[in-house]
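Researcher: Let's continue the batch. This sequence belongs to Biogenesis of lysosome-related organelles complex 1 subunit 1, and it's 120 residues. Same format as the previous ones, please.
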Amino acid sequence: MLSNLVKQHQSRQQTRKELQEKRKKDAVVAATALSHVLVDHLNAGVAQAYVNQKKLDTETRILQANAAQFSKQTMQWLKLVEDFNTALKEIGDVENWAKSIETDMRTISSALEYAYRKAD
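Model: Same format as before. Here are the structure tokens for Biogenesis of lysosome-related organelles complex 1 subunit 1:
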């Protein structure tokens, strides 16, 4: 009878150990699955942030290129305006020169007419 009780006790202990080991394995599997799910969720967020950063980098490069092109074009426009202003000044200078020549020619013409009249 005592040996029978010992066998039953050992049998129940073995069953409990097996159950405890099974529960331990199930807990490890569940914890591993949870870890994978959490890591996958975090990785999805990180991957989206990475994709967004790449898009921002691309847009920044495009914006920098456009800004450089705009700056170059603005400099060309400024050069054209400066050249136009210089041309206008030269036209004004030519006009003043022409008026000066015209005045000198009238003076010479008047002097010649006066000299011619005196000679007659």
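Researcher: Any comment?
Model: The chain has a mean pLDDT of 90.
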